[in-house]
Write a structure and sequence with these properties.
Chain lengths: 262, 255
């Protein structure tokens, strides 16, 4: 009874769907989180009676065939890279990207990772780091006696030093973009790394050449929408249930068959 | 006498095949752009032995035979996703996908961009425009897809000038039932069948067409199938009992 296995693929797919949805809901309040969506496709078909087969010597052909599908597969869990809403926080080191681009982060092993989470901190040496303690690229060091740090939409970081009325420019934040943002690989901690599918990183200045601009004192909220997730959850659960009904129907039919033998 | 058993068996085989079709529909309840299937049956009339000497000819025996699977091409519900690369087709039409085995047709418009900037399907096959694959440049942003398929972007730092990146090819088939499902949301056209440009289809950006599987219908069919199956097997059981009785009673020799 192939229906059993077909329904099993459906149940597995819905289970994965619920897993993706639960991860989205769990990250509803995660800064810079981009929601994922499970994408499904149908599996191969067995052509039991091939369409277009000649049925008579006069050249009559079968107008329809018998094609039996074998279920569903998960083809990917692409990220939906839409802009999250900006939440004003009033913290000087909170920076949100409005538009395309990622902050470039130096990892402890010397490689680079990318993030949309702009809740930065300052370490003991005055360097700007992520909340996880990794350095934001290019490295910017804030002097000990600095007051009121300003990050403008173009990414220029400036401070005022006591006794000097003119603000001092400390450095320039850069953003990185990818042709295929959805192809980035998530490594947790709100970080992504480049893959062959994402394309090469393209560095650029904020607010230039299609790059997003920066908003200081703001954080980008996750783009998870509770209503959407809950309705997908209901759909997934019901679909799971219906697949299990198919399993029990197939089981019942098998039972009937066995019951015939006395 | 044997006919009842064989007729019943033919019905049971058809029913279990119909269950497989339903299982596939239900498994694909959440598959973007999936079109549900239905099974078709026909009567198969076996030639009967006929003796002219009897007053009435034997009645013909009718078997069940599955003739084909039909595709239900009704529009699936369109779900808003907010993703600029999701496109739903409203009306009769298909996207054209370039696969290693040739052109394939799909209603699944959950597209992505690959590392080379090409518009691709979820499994990485380029989506064709009127002039080949649609390719974006590295500085492109704000992708907009018009209802008639034009893909435009804002290029570089320019926010008010649009640049065209191509026009999505939309096709239709005069006899869509002839399309063959190939898995991976793709349809294949039989040899010698060429698509024609779709004129009645409109695209909707930031939305996908969900599967058109009607869950109520599938569940009803499911109940119908299991009950019919049990019914037929009761019939077979009775036929069998009848035969058993006949054998045991007829063979009884009165003493």
């Amino acid at each position: 009874m192939r229906a059993l296995y077909t329904a099993a693929t459906g149940m597995m797919a819905q289970e994965l769907n619920v897993q993706v949805i639960s991860n989205n809901i769990a990250n509803m309040q995660t800064t810079g989180y981009k929601r994922q969506r499970a994408e499904f496709q149908d599996l191969l078909y067995e052509h039991v009676r091939r369409i277009g087969t000649q049925t008579t010597d006069q050249g009559n052909m079968l107008p329809v065939g018998v094609d039996l599908g074998s279920g569903v597969k998960t083809v990917g869990t692409p990220r939906v890279m839409t802009q999250g809403t900006l939440l004003p926080t009033g913290r000087d080191f909170d920076v949100a990207i409005r538009g395309d681009g990622f902050f470039k982060i130096l990892m402890p092993d010397g490689s680079f990772s990318y993030t949309r989470d702009g809740s930065f901190e300052m370490d003991a040496q005055g360097r700007i780091t992520t909340a996880g303690g990794n350095l934001v690229q290019p490295g910017i060091t804030v002097p000990q006696n600095a007051q009121s740090i300003t990050i403008n939409p173009q990414g220029q970081v400036s401070v005022t030093i006591p006794g000097n009325p003119t603000p001092q420019v400390l450095g320039q934040l850069v953003l990185t973009r990818f042709v295929n943002q959805a192809g980035l690989q998530p490594i947790g901690d709100n970080l992504f790394v480049e893959t062959p599918a994402s394309g090469q990183p393209i560095d650029g200045l904020p607010a230039i050449d299609g790059m997003g601009d920066l908003q200081q004192d703001n954080l980008e909220q996750s783009n998870v929408e509770a209503v959407t997730e809950i309705s997908s959850l209901i759909t997934a659960q019901r679909a799971y249930e219906m697949n299990s009904k198919v399993v029990s129907a197939a089981d019942e039919m098998l039972q009937t068959t066995t019951g015939m033998m006395k | 006498m044997e006919n009842a058993l064989l007729v019943g068996l033919s019905r049971q085989m058809a029913l279990s095949r119909q269950l497989e079709v339903i299982a596939n529909n239900v498994a694909n309840m959440n598959t973007t752009g999936y079109k549900s299937d239905g099974a078709l049956f026909e009567e198969f009339i076996a030639p009967t032995a006929q003796d002219d000497g009897t007053s009435r000819a034997d009645s013909a025996v009718h078997f069940t035979n599955d003739r084909g699977i039909w595709h239900d091409f009704t529009q699936g519900p369109v779900q808003h996703t907010g993703n600029p690369l999701d496109v739903a087709i409203d009306g009769d039409g298909y996207f054209v996908v370039q696969t290693p085995n040739g052109e394939r047709y799909t209603r699944n418009g959950a597209f992505q961009v690959n590392g080379a900037g090409q518009l691709v399907t979820a499994d990485g096959m380029p989506v064709l425009g009127d002039n080949g694959p649609i390719t974006f440049q590295q500085t492109d942003h704000n992708v907009a897809i018009t209802p008639d398929g034009f893909v435009s972007v804002n290029e570089g730092n320019v926010t008010n000038v649009e640049a065209r990146r191509g026009k999505l090819r939309l096709v239709r088939f005069a006899r869509a039932q002839n399309l063959i499902k190939e898995g991976a949301s793709n349809f294949r056209a039989p040899n010698g069948v060429d698509p024609e440009p779709a004129t009645n289809a409109k695209l909707q950006q930031m939305a996908v067409e969900k599967s058109n599987v009607n869950s109520v219908l599938e569940m009803t069919r499911l109940i119908d199938i299991t009950r019919s199956y049990a019914q037929v097997s009761a019939l077979l059981q009775q036929t069998n009992d009848m035969r058993k009785n006949a054998i045991s009673q007829l063979a009884e020799v009165p003493t």
